[in-house]
Amino acid sequence: MRKISLLYLLGCLIFCTAALAQDLRITGTVTSADDGSSLPGVSVQVKGTQRGTQTDAMGSYVVEAAPNAVLIFSFVGFTPQEIPVGNSTTIDVQLAADIRSLSEVVVTGYGTQSKRNLTGNIAKVSGAEIANTPVTTFEQALQGRAAGVQVTSLNGKLGQGMQMRIRGSSSVTASNEPLYVLDGIPLTTSDQGTSSAPQNPLADINFNDIESIDILKDASAAAIYGARASNGVVLITTKKGKSGKTKFNVSYQMGSSKPTRLRQWLNTEQYVELFSEAVQNEIDAGNLPASYLTGSTYNRFTRYAAGDRAGWETGKFDTDWQAEAFQKAPMGQFDISASGGDAKTRFFVSGQYLDQKGILVKNSFKRLSGRINLDHKATDRLTLGVNVNLARTVNGRLSNDNAFSTPLQIVALPPITPVIDPRTDELSGSYTLYYNPLLNRDFSSNVSTSYRTIGNVFAEYRFADWLKFRSEMGTDIYNLNEDQYFGKETSRNTGAPNGQGYSTWAQITNYTTNNFFTLGQTFGEKHDVDATLGMTFQKSEASYNSVTGQEFPSNAYTKVTSAANITAGSSSASNYSFLSYFARANYRFDNKYLFSVSGRVDGSSRFGANNRYGFFPAASVGWIISDESFMEAIPTLSLLKLRASYGLTGNAEIGNFDSYGLYRGDAGYAGVPGQRPEQIENPDLRWEQTTQTDIGLEFGLFSGRLSGEVDYYIKNTRDLLLNVNVPGTSGFRTQLRNIGNLENKGWEFVLRSDNTTGAFKWNSSLNLSANRNKIVNLDGQVITGGFINQAVEGQPIGSFFTIEYAGVDPANGDALYYKNDERPDGTFDRTTTNNPNDAQRVVVGNPNPKLIGGLSNSFAYKGIELTVLFQGQTGNDIYNGGGKFQSANGDFFDNQTVDQLERWQQPGDMTNVPQARLFGANGTAESSRYLQRGDYLRLKNATLSYSLPSTLTSRIKMDRVRLYVTGQNLLTFTKYTGWDPEVNADYLAGNIGLGNDFYSAPQAKTIIVGINLGF
Amino acid sequence: MKHILKNLLPYALTGSLLVLGGCANELDVKPVNTIDAGAAVATSGDVAALLVGAYDALGDADVYGGNVLRDADLLGDNGEIFFDGTFVAPDEIFRKSLLVNNNQAEVTWLDSYRAINIVNNVLANLAVVTEGDRARVEGEAKFIRGTLYFELVRNYAKVWTDGTPSANPGVPLVLAPTVEITEQAKVSRNSVGEVYAQVIKDLTEAEANLPESNGFFATKYAAAAMLSRVYLMQQKYPEAANAATRVIDSKKYSLVNTQDVFDLRVNVNGVNTAEDIFAVQITSQDGTNSTNTFYAAPDFGGRGDILIEDAHLALYEAGDNRANLFYEDNGSVFTSKWINQYGNVKILRLAEMYLTRAEANFRNNSSIGAAPSVDINLIRARAGLAAIPAASLTVANILKERHLELAFEGHLIHDIKRTKRNVGDLPFDSPKLVYPIPRREIDANANLAQNPGY
């Protein structure tokens, strides 16, 4: 307190001294250099004093200052100006908007910091970069835009879950998704639906409301989020109002989508040929009776051809089933926003309506979103505000990729089956090889509706220029309703002969309060200190219920109230809480030497009684070498900064009660109540710990025209939260334990360049990241996922671990596998066998890319602008789990990919497709036969826009008129032969389940046209 | 500024601290859908609920909810059915080419041991049970455990009649509840002989402790009936005949008309018939009749995966009313036995007792309870068939009668193995007719030896 008093005294002295000089009364107005509009709320400060004022609603100010004084005009988003008073009594100022300065402030946890002074690694993506991207959720729009951030859409279904990996996977069992925080409030991001195809709660966010997305990647940046920061933290900041004339922005865009690629399937003639041969081969081998071809097989063909032998024999029916899975996919989006305010109150309001159809039949997504962000200066010291977002999304959903009813499984149907059964003039149904997914299109509905309220209120009190206190109270209320009805026509799929209805509600209420002090002071000119100190508490309360009913009077009744038989119902709840204290201090000496320490104490209800609180510290240093006097000799080097950080973060994303020994009361039997042991206790359970070291170099050349960053990091995760397989003879399958460790190491490169300036502007931005994941130790655990994914010690997570396909025996058409028995000398037996049980499993591939990246180019000339974003990855493999059905050389009656016509037919044939053998399982074992490289390069986004010149727009009283056309996923370069290399079958997607394809829909290629009006 | 500091800061700090103090308790969040294991088994009622949990686990789709029955018929099939489904695991079983990671072999193992652990928890808490209920609870628990070990040993190990049971590896016997997972959880396989001994011990004690009537739960006669099956498997014919006789002579059960043996109604909750000794209970709200899932046509809630071939239909003599227990759907023939998706899954019914006793007596050249021809002709008469004179009765007659009567009820492969017949070209002792020890299990427990052929 003594120091504070001294400072106060000092302040008084300065004030008094200044008052002694002969002051002038200076007036003036401040306007925007852009459009001449007046700027209220601009700070007008007498340099070197505490004296100052703000412009009023008209942008006018009055201030007293001595003739030798200098006035500083500053305002967020504009370049500050310093003007000597001299003898003027009127000083009018035009402030120029400063895009660069905006992007150079990064949002840190519980604060902001200038990029220059940052010692951690934070990737920033501005809202402007992703605005109006024709995708449903902002993570998709982030693809290729930030180094070290890998975003994967599971498939081309709208509203579906996404996978985001920041600097690789840091966990085997706990979540690998980052923590998402919107305006200070951690969001509910995990799937709350009941389908095994995850639904994305982040799709509720209208990303045109986003001002910036700041991705905290290293420990220094993320440790302030402690036990939940191991996977990185994504901070989303929404737009704030700007004082001045109210500005309206209206946009409309429309367009349509189609699949990025289709696959080639057998037509009727090829189908009959291949399968007749497959049967004959088995007859010849004595595995099928001689009559099987002309008897059973032809009967089967006729059955599949709607009972019409000519249907398959003469090619009367030749259905392209794949085409039936897709639909016309139009989309339209309307956005409106207004922002403005005066010196005291600023607001931003927005609304959006998005209506999009998916490329797959029956898939749709609609979002209605409204937001109001308001802040008000109650007094000089007290600011109050509120940010509220209301959204409703309606998602027409589909079955998961593993279901017969998912549209793309339609490709399994033989081409000899007509879409419409000529005998009934109805959709082919009961007689088809498999359930016809089109029945779901016509006789079912599956709609998920979410109602989302994300909001917070805050108050900020400025005790002094160097000290303020901020208190935030926020909620994220997520209500999800799934409403499904399956008509009696779908009974082959549902098992319910007279219709089935299903309804669920989930409500997740997530409360957060953040209370923290922010301090900042400069001492003796060379010492800058700022600090943050506070606490946060979060509680999430979730409740769920569901009901299933069967036996409906007709398809006109679709709600469970009409079900004669209520077959299932449930209600449940699950809560968790976090109580945390955090602190951060930054110290800067001489504006060149940067030091930062931060730490967080996290307590969570999720952890065992013995380990409830954890401490997560981090420290970092930075050195701005370019500011050293010895660097003045290299004037081209405008920035050279070295930084290093080290710290500890945790991962607490496990189940809410994983540490308990539990019994569950769901073991009733025929109406008699029952209970069962469910989980073995582990009171020692704790968070995973990740220590991360990051060394980074930032540079700028030619006054910042070329700038970049290089980072190298090592993330070591220990005490992995592992669902350890225990002997099943114990009555349990797994137990969650802290066992083992893994590491991620990698490089990140970011390069930005203003290639040309002047009338023709060309900017480029490149990011490349190479992450190497390695499971170091699993204590011998075998943890599997997907079809053949496994966590294998010494290998990247989710490595493809199976037997190795060795091609086809030219002598007899047998599929061969390498035996791969390990010999005592460590070599492998490379002889082959036709018995998959005799072949040893080995690591055959890696689903994790070795390199991911994005390259963005922007060209602007006068009002015309073209931006082009390429995104890609390399070094990863994809396993097509559907291969054993789709490309199985006629093993069963599923239609086959055309490449199966390359099958072995006679001795000496050299091919990779084994002899066709019906029921012969010739090459259909899970093996590397169905593994392919997954490298791709994609023209992710290209936008061509034209902004009308202001001479024209002003005539129609507009500030801005912009027309644009955007293409998403326009071109894809890949050797992968499946539908799309950006894939991870939805029902298998997880930490281990990576890089799988299973009838997964391709991404959409979307082209839209749009218009933005600003007035 | 001083003023403000003095006045506001303390409030703010105090306010924050209050919030913090209140929050610390908020970290104690208790589960609501589940309860603490330590408090779950405190009363007699808790043990009773746990016992019901054991039935629930026994009735799991991958155990007696149907898949164990289904797989016995798929593995033993000689061309009388065709597996038309897409599930890889049953398809491998049908083709007699199980891979070591066969998923069905894995889940049947896991779910059986899950049920066994529940039973072991019941048995460890018998002291809590009201005295009047204790014997029954013990009996029911041992019935379930004995039954499960019997299914495990005959699926995952060499058949009793193959080599020396005391030397052949069986399955691990776990007889105590799991309270923590330690190295001791890495159990080894007991011998086939040891497992059978435990099965017989459990079932014998169950028979002794169980009441004659017990609703749809296990009774004294369910235990005796299961024992007869075990003894028949071991070719201990007098014991098998005696056990069957105890069931028959109880007069608790009676043969019903052929069309009433199976639940031919559709989409209604299952009921036990007078013939049922033990059946897994299914309702529209609880349990999955997995035999329906695979055997029934889509119109009846099934996947329609198992088609009945002419080779089977041709086995029925003219006039056999069991030949009516089939229906055609879209050109394929299905069995009606599992047409009701909410019907019970029959595990033990009286007809089996007659067939078992007939075979045991015939092979033993005895007439325990009744002469073999009497028992066989009882079954034949019910099917509407003429009697076979005692003099011309053969083992083949008896086995054929058993085959047709108990078709698609989970007996086939075991009957074939114990009578040392072939499945296609595979001899009864082919390793292909024994399940692999699940790969995940060997991965988790290095002490388990794999079966030959995997």
SSE topology sketch:
The complex is a heterodimer of chains A (1015) and B (454).
Chain A (H helix, E strand, L loop, with lengths): L1 H19 L3 E9 L10 E4 L5 E3 L5 E6 L4 E5 L6 E4 L8 E3 L3 H5 L1 E4 L2 E4 L7 E5 H4 L7 H5 L6 E5 L8 E5 L12 E4 L2 E2 L23 E7 L2 H4 L10 E6 L5 E16 L8 H17 L8 H12 L4 H5 L7 H4 L4 E13 L3 E13 L6 E14 L4 E15 L23 E2 L4 E2 L10 H6 E21 L2 E20 L4 H4 L5 E24 L3 E24 L14 E25 L3 E12 L8 E12 L12 E15 L10 E3 L11 E4 L8 E14 L4 E13 L2 E5 L8 E5 L2 E16 L3 E18 L5 E3 L3 E3 L7 E4 L2 E4 L6 E4 L13 E2 L8 E4 L5 E11 L2 E11 L2 E4 L2 H4 L44 E3 L2 E12 L2 H6 L4 E15 L21 E2 L6 E11 L1
Chain B lengths: L1 H24 L8 E3 L7 H15 L8 H9 L5 E3 L4 H7 L8 H22 L6 H26 L35 H18 L10 H14 L3 H13 L8 H4 L14 E5 L9 H6 L10 E3 L1 H4 L12 E4 L2 E4 L9 E5 H15 L7 H11 L12 H11 L6 H7 L20 H6 L10
Antiparallel strand pairs in B: 2-4, 3-7, 5-6
Protein architecture, described:
The complex is a heterodimer of chains A (1015) and B (454). Helices cover 9% and strands 47% of the residues of chain A. Chain A starts with a helix and ends with a strand. Chain A is globular and about 115 Å long. In chain A, a hairpin with a 2-residue loop joins strand 8 (105-108) and strand 9. With 1015 residues, chain A is mostly beta strands. Chain B is mainly α and 454 residues long. Helices cover 47% and strands 6% of the residues of chain B. Chain B has 17 helices and 7 strands. Chain B has a two-stranded antiparallel ribbon. In chain B, helix 5 runs antiparallel to helix 6 (131-156), helix 6 runs parallel beside helix 8 (220-233) and helix 9 (237-249) packs antiparallel against helix 13. The radius of gyration of chain B is 26 Å and the shape is globular. At the A-B interface, helix 1, strand 24, strand 27, strand 28 and strand 32 of A face helix 1, strand 1, helix 2, helix 5 and helix 17 of B. Strand 32 (662-664) of chain A pairs antiparallel with strand 1 (34-36) of chain B.
